[in-house]
Amino acid sequence: MKDILVLYYSRHGATRELALAIAQGVDSVPGMQSRIRTVPSVSPVTEATEPDIPADGPPYAELRDLEECAGLALGSPTRFGNMAASLKHFLDGTTPQWLSGALAGKPACVFTSTGSLHGGQETTLLSMMLPLLHHGMLLVGIPYTESALSATQSGGTPYGASHVSGAGARESALSHDEKALAVALGTRLARTAARLAGRP
């Protein structure tokens, strides 16, 4: 089995729901499996620390997860049109993988959630692509052959899967189209990784 790393940060659970849908798509591809990981929160208070093991949900990502993966799905809630500091902090620590070329040539995709329909989804997705391009990864988006991309009244972009949780929402279920697009993106990422590995 080849692992696809589904790496995300989620504050209230909306981005986690997208991650699970992407993982569902990955797991639907024969010979591929998702490896779901998260990152700890960062704090402006230097004394504040997160436990080594999260209280619930997937384990925290380690740099070896990046080295071992056949592909990467990267997700974050939107913070003023950009990725969350917690995910950026993790990516800032990947210089050894950049120097060794550990991610070069691997496929990757991105996903995000926002509180409002025009909350900066596309700029957040683009901001997450930048470090992946520096790592030499091959970006995979959502083509308009996915009919939900033209039909969605909520999240979903050609740049990556997205979700509109609603302003102030703690957790909100993915719409039918949002879930379909997230599953399709995970499937496309896993199929691309399989093809790059020389499998049908």
Automatic annotation (TrEMBL):
Return the GO cellular component terms, semicolon-separated.
membrane
NCBIfam families according to UniProt: flav_wrbA, PRK03767.1
Q: What is this protein called?
A: Flavoprotein WrbA
Q: Which UniProt keywords apply?
A: Flavoprotein, FMN
Please give the organism. Trinickia symbiotica
Q: Which SUPFAM superfamilies match?
A: Flavoproteins
- Statement: the UniProt record of this protein carries the keyword Flavoprotein: yes
One annotated GO molecular function: FMN binding
Flavodoxin-like domain segment(s) = 4-190
What family is this?
Answer: Belongs to the WrbA family.
